[in-house]
Amino acid sequence: MRKGLISVCLTTLALSATAPVFAEPTQADIDRGKELAYSRKDGNCLACHKMDDGKLTGNIGPELADMKARFPDREMLFKRIWDETQFNPMTVMPPFGRHMILSEQEINRIIDYLYTL
To answer: What residues does each domain of the chain span?
Structure first.
């Protein structure tokens, strides 16, 4: 009995360690992500990054282009937007998630949009 319980626990741990599966975003998800990224009050990505058809873009951060190729691991891009200071303590990029500027869902919508660039 004990051996069976250990086997079930190990199987459960192995299954929970798998990467999350993301559903294919809808056009509405992508549009919402662009709206958040371009908003001067929410994501405000344009303040620092050149991207797509944005107007009055900044040049502090890198251009946001070819994002799926640059960040094939979606979770890594999420972590960078959530708190870039984990990777670069000297960054000027705000920790959008850690400081509750954007929610997890909002960051995911922005990534949905960035993956179209």
So the answer is: 27-115
Burial status of residue 30 (CB atoms within 10 A of its CB: 0-12, 13-18, 19 or more): middle
- What angle (nearest 5°) sits at the alpha carbon of residue 101, between those of residues 100 and 106? 95
Alpha-carbon span 90 to 87, nearest angstrom? 9
Please compute Rg for the chain using Cα positions: 18
pTM, entire model: 0.79
- Closest listed residue to residue 116, CA positions, set 53, 56, 43: 53
Q: What's the angle, vertex CA 10, arms to CA 6 and CA 12, rounded to 5?
A: 115
Three-state DSSP at 74 gives helix
Angle at alpha carbon of residue 80, lines to 73 and 16, rounded to 5°: 50
Q: Is the pLDDT of residue 90 over 80?
A: yes
CATH superfamily of 27-115: Cytochrome c-like domain (1.10.760.10)
